[in-house]
Amino acid sequence: MGDDFSCQVKKMALAMGASLSDKDLDLLPEIRHHGSFNYTKFFEYMQQFQTLEEREQHIRKAFQMLDKDGSGFIEWNEIKYILSTVPSTKPVVPLSDEEAEAIIQAADVDGDGRIDFQEFSELVTKEKIPNKKK
């Protein structure tokens, strides 16, 4: 697709709440034919992407489930608790304080020893793979 056209398609996708990569554009079915734009094909293609608002709602809900004390942060004791309650068919060994701290450090961008919503959101959306609606 032409650069200007690709830019416009990306802008339309953003207006619909989805962010398209160049790879997504390459997978887009032929929507231009003799200078006209096939909106029907475009909208059908866009249905597979979850809107940014929907994605953020799901991430926020997951964050709130992990933030047991409602402080707005996921702290090491919450990580330990959550991971100790995950069902498993094998015996579960509780995390040590050091292991829980290592999990926090992996996501803790600002170095305050806890994970805020932004850090959590960045952690779970690192791959930027579009989510499909089910």
Automatic annotation (TrEMBL):
It comes from the Eukaryota. Ca(2+) binds at D67, D69, S71, F73, E78, D108, D110, D112, E119. Residues 54-89, 95-130 form the EF-hand domain. It holds the Pfam family EF-hand_7. Keywords: Calcium, Metal-binding, Repeat. The keyword Amino-acid biosynthesis does not apply. One of its GO terms (cellular component) is cytoplasm. GO terms for molecular function: calcium ion binding. PROSITE patterns: EF_HAND_1, EF_HAND_2. In muscle, parvalbumin is thought to be involved in relaxation after contraction. It binds two calcium ions. This is Parvalbumin.
